[in-house]
Design brief:
This protein has eight helices and nine strands. It is of the alpha/beta class. It has a domain of 59 residues. The strands form two sheets. The chain has a six-stranded mixed β-sheet with strand order 5-6-7-3-8-9, sandwiched between helices. The chain has a three-stranded antiparallel β-sheet with strand order 2-1-4, with helices on one face.
Length: 245
Amino acid sequence: MLIEARDVSVFRSSYTVLDNVSLDVAADDFITLIGPNGAGKSMLLKTLLKLNRADKGSVTHTPDLKIGYVPEKIAFDRTMPMQVGRFLRLHNKISDDDLAALCAETGASHLLARPVADLSGGELQRVLLTRALIGNPHILMLDEPAQNLDVNGQLQFYKLLEDIYADREIAILMVSHDLHLVMSSTRKVVCLYRHICCSGTPESVAKDPEFISIFGDEMARLMAVYPHSHTHDHTHDHARKPDNS
């Protein structure tokens, strides 16, 4: 296991953002976190990254774990014309040959001399992905990496992730709302609504009553799933004060 989360809860004032979440990420995993807005997906990713501290529970990384992280968004000062090549080398030691090979892998070679602030959404995501791969991480962790891309850009980006997963034998943990694309590219899906509602292969999750209760019958029909009885109410109030005992 690269990352082990046990009974993780995160609270904000009296609101429960994550409620008793346990998740393992193995070296060969390709996992996508899905769920509605406000489900705690980004918070869980940041907690697994140890960028955010869990109020209860624990997150354990295997020793010497190297993580490549692609954030949901990043802002650049357009008055500072930093070129992509310089941005990629910030706080990173990488030879020209290795950088050229990496950019060829991610399709970012033609961007090296461009100002970062002038990049399109798709170009920026390729650059951020390139930067995340410097140092040969054991796992890539991505937060809504294709949210600002058009459909063609989304298809290309997810195909690139599939290729990287296959060629590098790297683990991938991703937050995404692109259900139709996630179901075709990922190996395991974890459906989150403050707690883990269901998890498994895309096919099994798409048939799960929890998935149907969250995303609705229309999405279920779109995914060619069949309805099951629902055993869990996602409309109840999760808000409570943390137990400090």
